[in-house]
């Protein structure tokens, strides 16, 4: 009797989990300095593997698991930075104007998504876009600030806008 693809993936992940879960958790603890977060992220690694729809031949399991875990650690740190920035901004807001925990979570999730989308842009393009959209700077002023031509800034902002529109369209298609 042959196994289905799903059963094969599950057995493969089960084997990786049994053989490497302790190593992965300890490695993440060393990276993060927090056992609870290390436990959560190590579980996320295996959950991500269970979500695959294809079999992957893993020759070096620790390198493979470590690569997935590094990506999750980077995501964790980025989210933490966003949450810290949000807390600093909210510290200046009067208590009665503070958002509810649900609203706070929605804002953090939206900021994480925006960060993820903009994170795929080249640094200069992202900076030009943010200076225009967040700081309200004009293209000539951004050009002076970045030390590039105005046409370069206009092109960067155009690229960023197209990128954002594509990302939003892809989200609409997924939901």
TrEMBL record:
<keyword id="KW-0804">Transcription</keyword>
<dbReference type="Pfam" id="PF04542">
    <property type="entry name" value="Sigma70_r2"/>
</dbReference>
<keyword id="KW-0805">Transcription regulation</keyword>
<comment type="similarity">
    <text>Belongs to the sigma-70 factor family. ECF subfamily.</text>
</comment>
<dbReference type="GO" id="GO:0006352">
    <property type="term" value="P:DNA-templated transcription initiation"/>
</dbReference>
<dbReference type="GO" id="GO:0016987">
    <property type="term" value="F:sigma factor activity"/>
</dbReference>
<protein>
    <submittedName>
        <fullName>RNA polymerase subunit sigma</fullName>
    </submittedName>
</protein>
<dbReference type="InterPro" id="IPR013324">
    <property type="entry name" value="RNA_pol_sigma_r3/r4-like"/>
</dbReference>
<dbReference type="InterPro" id="IPR039425">
    <property type="entry name" value="RNA_pol_sigma-70-like"/>
</dbReference>
<dbReference type="InterPro" id="IPR007627">
    <property type="entry name" value="RNA_pol_sigma70_r2"/>
</dbReference>
<feature type="domain" description="RNA polymerase sigma-70 region 2">
    <location>
        <begin position="16"/>
        <end position="81"/>
    </location>
</feature>
<dbReference type="InterPro" id="IPR013249">
    <property type="entry name" value="RNA_pol_sigma70_r4_t2"/>
</dbReference>
<dbReference type="Pfam" id="PF08281">
    <property type="entry name" value="Sigma70_r4_2"/>
</dbReference>
<dbReference type="InterPro" id="IPR036388">
    <property type="entry name" value="WH-like_DNA-bd_sf"/>
</dbReference>
<dbReference type="GO" id="GO:0003677">
    <property type="term" value="F:DNA binding"/>
</dbReference>
<dbReference type="InterPro" id="IPR013325">
    <property type="entry name" value="RNA_pol_sigma_r2"/>
</dbReference>
<keyword id="KW-0731">Sigma factor</keyword>
<dbReference type="InterPro" id="IPR014284">
    <property type="entry name" value="RNA_pol_sigma-70_dom"/>
</dbReference>
<feature type="domain" description="RNA polymerase sigma factor 70 region 4 type 2">
    <location>
        <begin position="112"/>
        <end position="164"/>
    </location>
</feature>
């Amino acid at each position: 009797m042959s196994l289905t693809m799903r059963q094969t993936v599950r057995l493969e992940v089960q084997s990786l989990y049994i053989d490497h879960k302790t190593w992965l958790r300890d490695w993440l603890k060393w990276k993060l300095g927090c056992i609870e977060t290390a436990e959560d992220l190590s579980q996320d690694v295996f959950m991500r593997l269970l979500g695959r729809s294809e079999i992957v031949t893993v020759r070096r399991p620790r390198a493979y698991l470590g690569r997935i875990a590094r990506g999750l650690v980077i995501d964790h740190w980025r989210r933490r930075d966003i949450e810290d920035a949000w807390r600093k901004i909210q510290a200046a807001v009067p208590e009665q104007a503070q958002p509810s925990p649900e609203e706070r979570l929605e804002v953090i999730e939206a900021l994480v998504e925006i960060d993820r989308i903009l994170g795929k842009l080249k640094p200069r393009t992202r900076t030009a876009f943010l200076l225009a959209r967040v700081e309200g700077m004009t293209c000539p002023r951004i050009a002076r600030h970045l030390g590039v031509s105005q046409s370069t800034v206009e092109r960067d902002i155009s690229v960023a806008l197209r990128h954002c529109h594509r990302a939003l369209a892809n989200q609409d298609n997924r939901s």
